[in-house]
Amino acid sequence: MYFAKNIKFLRKRRGRTQDEVASALGLKRSTLSGYENCVAEPGIDVLVAFSKYYEIAVDTMLKMDLTLLRESQLGELERGFDAYLTGSTIRVLATTVDSENSENIELVPEKAKAGYLTGYADPEFIGELSVFNLPFLSSNRKYRTFQLRGDSMLPIPDGSWVTGEYVQDWFDINDGNAYIVFTMDDGIMFKIVENRIKEEGRLNLFSLNPVYESFSVRISEVREVWKFVNFISNELPEPVLPEKELINTVAAMKHDLDLLKLKTKTHPLSE
Question: Phi/psi at 59 (nearest 5 deg)?
Fold first, then answer.
């Protein structure tokens, strides 16, 4: 593990003192010194805090010796081009298989969302989730189903079970398509995505419901991306009138209103 070496290297690279970094992370200077000198072991919350502070993936800070990278490679890391973040084959997904060694579709219900934040990479946690299969989906791809709450993606009903296909390479995310995006800060989100990884190291997220404003997440904050495949619900989505039908409906209402006005003029109501 290279965590101690890396956080010391990154601090000095950015010209910051132990006091400055410790203050920004809410740590004591002596605690930070202990981490840098391998005297103390950081917990998960501290690892995530360092990752957010330096905008570099936890996996990268743990497993890669940053002091050996060229300046151009370090620059790419700092702009969000991180091999542990962009979906290279280095990333490992915790998953389950059936008795025939075929991929299961794990169910992540509403009550399991909190546990998913810390257990998404834990095979034991994933192994405790309920599983099922959909025979019409490809057996060569990985799927997972999440129960979603809220009205941000109307007309998809609240409480729907949304199935996504695991996205290995995040550069393949297509603008305007729907994805399940999982981050440590915002949890599991179902959004329309604009891919700005190459230009800005970000994903811009949009809701189908226009009441909700768009926002962006740094790619360093993202842990998983699943491309929308289908949803299951016991409710029918709200009907959406086609444009032509909507125009005809408005025209008919206007015609009826004109007739009513004409009748009122011809036969005024008696007082």
Answer: -55, -40
